[in-house]
Design goal:
The complex is a heterodimer of chains A (204) and B (260). Chain A is 13% helix and 38% strand. Chain A is built from 3 helices and 11 strands. In chain A, strands 1, 3, 6, 7, 9 and 10 form a 6-stranded antiparallel beta sheet that branches. In chain A, strands 5-11-4-8 form a 4-stranded antiparallel beta sheet, with no helix packed on it. The relative contact order of chain A is 0.26. Classes of the chains: A mainly beta (204), B alpha+beta (260).
Chain lengths: 204, 260
């Protein structure tokens, strides 16, 4: 027979493990966080051969605030993941096919045809200014990696991840996103889609 | 009652714990839609009209060749086939040249129905996408035969006056019939002459034309689509036949299409 004291001790033990991941920040937000849709139409040889680039297809503006009583452990991470809707039958390494033109005897474009560049004025991300590619659905690329030591806002250095806002520290808390696609002549013509998800999270 | 209290207490503790564990998160999505529209482009440099005037005996014997009369440049974003087909308006029938005017009398052996296949083509660049071809001649890349040795290797593909694609037994300029999906078998991959280097290219074809009437003028190199049967005037019309003097016209249609 388990006593009352034993039972509550056990439950507190479980809860205490979970409580370790408590909130350190008062607010973690991307502004605005509405979806962006970008359409790239390839209908001539210049675009097929030279590729197409959309600069600043999206701006990731970050606001991370302390709690009313500031917690020195408040910090954040920003990652991006790729989603090709595998539930719809898309192979893990290809764009999701929405429609196909012609006979479809070739191959569908792989995910790594899409290149993504992240940049801000303070080059706070280690991948700043360099086009990155994903290979498979669910791949993750760190913009500001999780669990890094806290670098406070205002330092205009690498991996700034302390509390702050694009309103007060625009060069550190705003990320411009550029995308580039260079299909060449290898893939089935058609309409294809990919979703890039930017995920902002406070560090536990 | 006691047990119920313990249960409520336990749920309260777990509930509060789970509410505490959530970290603050926000997300934003960028959806990229790519519309790859197929582009097939055939650029052709050629005179509006190519004239073959036979007014000397040696021209009947040796024929007239128009070197480099047509230049074809291909740009395609999809795998492709390219072929030529002989056509006319059908005045003399769907597979014959149109006789615009006749010279001389109407001798019964003077044949006005000249087969479209008497026109010979030669492509400077061999067809590198025709491994699956099953006929005698996969393309028009063989040299024009000597006047004394009739050959069907360069006779123009004709199919009842239509522009229907050739079969596996017939001639293509680039690619061939079939959808194996294996490069080199029956198609040439997407690409453009604009990005090619070197002196030859699968996207660039120089076409020579020849008409060899012979004497008598029977057009000994005319042959059916697969090159297995000659269509010269004697084979078709019997001994003594010859081409009726006159002015004749026809046209060559070049068709670039997605591999199929």
């Amino acid at each position: 027979m388990i006593s009352k004291a034993t039972l509550f001790s056990f439950l507190f033990l479980i809860a205490s493990n979970v409580i370790e991941a408590q909130i350190h920040c008062g607010l973690v937000e991307i502004t605005p966080n509405t979806s962006v849709n970008a359409l790239m139409t390839f209908d001539n040889f210049t675009s097929y051969n030279g590729g197409m680039i959309i600069n600043s297809v999206a701006k990731i503006r970050i606001k991370v605030e302390d709690q009313a009583i500031p917690d020195p452990l408040c910090s954040w991470s920003l990652i991006m993941t790729i989603d090709n809707n595998p539930g719809g039958g898309t192979p893990a390494n290809e764009w999701e096919e929405l429609n196909q033109y012609g006979s479809g005897l070739g191959t569908n474009p792989p995910i790594d045809v899409l290149e993504i560049k992240v940049r801000n004025s303070c080059t706070t991300s280690p991948i700043d200014g360099v086009f990155q590619t994903f290979n498979n659905h669910g791949d993750i690329i760190d913009i500001i990696a999780p669990m890094l030591p806290i670098t406070p806002a205002g330092s205009c250095g690498l991996n700034v991840n302390g509390p702050g806002s694009f309103l007060s520290n625009y060069d550190e808390f705003n990320f411009d996103i550029d995308i580039r696609v260079k299909p060449n002549f290898s893939y089935n013509p058609g309409i294809y889609q990919l979703n890039i998800r930017f995920h902002l999270e406070e560090n536990p | 009652m006691k047990k119920l209290s313990y249960l409520c207490g336990a749920l309260l503790i777990l509930g509060s714990a789970s509410s505490l564990k959530a970290q603050l998160i926000d997300e934003k999505d960028v959806t990229v839609t790519m519309d790859l529209q197929p582009v097939l482009q055939l650029d052709m440099t050629t005179p509006d009209q190519i004239e073959f005037v036979f007014d000397e005996i040696n021209e009947y014997y040796a024929g007239i060749t128009k070197y480099g009369a047509t230049v074809l440049r291909v740009s395609s974003t999809v795998s492709w086939d390219l072929y030529a087909v002989g056509r006319s308006t059908g005045t003399n029938g769907p597979e014959f040249w149109d006789q615009q005017i006749e010279y001389g009398n109407n001798n019964p052996n003077a044949i006005p129905d000249l087969p479209l296949s008497l026109l010979e083509l030669r492509q400077a660049q061999p067809n590198n996408g025709a491994a699956a071809a099953a006929g005698l001649f996969a393309d028009y890349s063989q040299a024009f035969s000597p006047a004394t040795a009739p050959s069907a290797g360069n006779s123009l593909y004709v199919n009842g006056g239509t522009n229907t694609p050739p079969t596996t037994n017939d001639k293509y300029i680039g690619g061939h019939a079939g959808t194996s999906g294996v490069p080199g078998q029956d198609f040439l991959p997407g690409g453009s002459y604009l990005t090619q280097t070197g002196v030859t290219s699968d996207y660039f074809y120089v076409i020579d034309y020849r008409i060899l009437p012979g004497l008598p003028a029977i057009f000994p190199n005319a042959a059916d689509a697969d090159g297995a049967t000659f269509e010269d005037l004697i084979t078709v019309n019997g001994a003594g036949a010859y081409a009726e003097p006159g002015v004749y016209t026809m046209y060559v249609q070049y068709i670039l299409l997605e591999d199929q």
